[in-house]
Amino acid sequence: MAVEYSLTLCFFYKVIQLGEQPMTAKAKKYTPPVANSGKPPYPFRLFWALVLLFGNFVVAAFYFHLIE
After folding, report:
1. Positive or negative: CA dihedral 23, 28, 34, 35
2. What is the mean pLDDT of residues 41-68?
3. I need a labelling partner for 55 at 20 to 30 A (CA). Which of 10, 39, 45, 46 fits?
4. Residue among 14, 43, 46 at smallest CA distance from 30
5. Which tens digits make up the pLDDT trace of 1-53?
6. Which pLDDT score is estimated for 29?
């Protein structure tokens, strides 16, 4: 319980701390500490989303006896 409470406090402290930055052109922008690998993998995600959607339609067609 104490660990959850301290993690929650740390999270809200960071939110408050980030929210206090001035909104000016000279303000340092927040950059999260993660790797910046270039463009996001949207084509890869889109491909798998379409494959799964097609699979769902095939299963639904079997379920409603449109194909047997």
Report:
1. positive
2. 94
3. 39
4. 14
5. 555 556 555 555 555 555 555 556 666 777 767 767 667 778 889 999 999 99
6. 75
**One-letter amino acid of 20:** E
Largest CA distance in the chain: 65
Please enumerate in sequence order all residues whose Cβ is within 8 A of that of 62, keeping only pairs 6 or more positions apart, or say none: 68
Q: What is the pLDDT of residue 31?
A: 74
Cβ neighbours of residue 58 closer than 8 Å, sequence gap 6 or more: 67
How far apart are alpha carbons 66 and 52 in whole angstroms? Answer: 19
Task: Identify the CA nearest to 55 among candidates 14, 21, 2, 47.
Answer: 47
